[in-house]
Amino acid sequence: VLTQEQIDFFHANGYLIMRKMIRGAELEMLREQASVVQSQGVAKQGDRHLYKPGNNGEKVYWRSERMWSRGDIFQAVTVNPDILENIGQCVGEPFVPVNDSLVVKLAHEGVPVPWHQDPPYGFPEVIDTFPIPNFTTDIYLDHSGTDNGCVWAIPGRHLVGHVDFSTRSDEEMFARFGAVPVEMEPGDVLFHCISTPHGSRPNKSPLQRRIFYVHYMSVSTLADMRVKKKDESWGSIGPSLIPSMLEARRKFQWELPTDRATLDITDQEFRFTAQPVTPANHWAELIAGIPAETKARLKKI
Ligand SMILES: O=C(O)CCC(=O)C(=O)O
Questions:
Q1: I need a surface site. Which of 70, 80, 110, 286 has the fewest CB within 10 A?
Q2: Would you state the pLDDT for residue 107?
Q3: Which letter does DSSP use for residue 111 in this model?
Q4: 162-200 residue pLDDT tens
């Protein structure tokens, strides 16, 4: 479980690093199975692999979607009890897994990810941050540092909606405005708010770097998304897999989240039931407490 200090850091900065959360056989199997998917992606076998143009215009593999359909390990890790506890503490509401992907920076040719906020915050019309904490859970499979194109983030801007950095080059974003490199090791986990500006440099080193991204969302945010998208089944794959995720953990004989007194786990949703936890309306209060001049300053880089 997270300390109050860690929870406060998350809400103040818009990200949180948790060391050595995935360990032993679970980490080894995750790394092995990710390598299988990566080999298929590089060989252009199978579907839902994504590529970006490399330096010579060639297609460089960088990502695979729907990992839950590619192996039990990806489902089992998604209901790791330590991860679920920490997410529940930061969301402060019932939540579900919604979607997942593997992001790969190949050795020597890994492509950069331009600075951005995750959808929908890239759109200028999103003037405010939605009042429920919303972040991705990034499970690191390899060392990720400034040497091999780690993610960088600009802390403290996640509560002001869209941030305009359209006049800034990527190099300026890395060099100025308080960007921090998020340096991680295998088994470490990062929460990064979808509204936190972030980006990463190319990987020119001999060390590849991979992250298993899972987006868990509060049940209330998911319901809101379905209304906004006018699609009642939006984001339903993850929640529908909860029973099979629990079964995958059972099969590997790993600790189940249902065995933790701190968690309320059903086939529909997860909830953290102990302390410390994010209080109801916390982001709404934090957002309301930002003076207008401060907000205007934070919204422009
Ligand atoms: O892993 C990275 O370099 C960043 C990926 C990312 O920001 C994203 O997929 O939104």
A1: 286
A2: 96
A3: P
A4: 999 999 999 999 999 999 999 999 999 999 999 999 999
For the record, the structure tokens of 103 come out as 């992001």
Positions of E strands within the chain: 15-18, 49-53, 59-65, 95-105, 113-116, 135-140, 151-153, 180-181, 189-193, 198-200, 209-218, 263-265, 270-272
Nearest-CA residue for ligand 1 atom 7 is 199
Spatial CA neighbour of 166 closest among 7, 301, 27, 21: 301
Average pLDDT in the chain: 97
Q: Ligand 1: residues whose CB is within 6 Å?
A: 103, 113, 118, 151, 198, 200, 211
Residue 235 CA neighbour count, 13 Å, CB half: 22
What spacing in Å lies between the alpha carbon of 251 and ligand 1's midpoint? 31
* Dihedral over alpha carbons 107, 110, 115, 121 (to 10 degrees): -110
pLDDT, residue 114, reads 96
152: tokens are 């960088």
Distance in Å, CA 273 to ligand 1 centroid: 31
Give the SS3 label for residue 249: helix
Q: How far is residue 161's CA from residue 227's CA, in Å, rounded to a whole number?
A: 20
| 111 C-alpha to ligand 1 centroid (Å) | 11
Q: Which of 80, 70, 72, 91 lies closest to 222, judged by CA?
A: 91
- Ligand 1 centroid distance, CA of 260 (Å): 31
pLDDT in tens, 102-144: 999 999 999 999 999 999 999 999 999 999 999 999 999 999 9
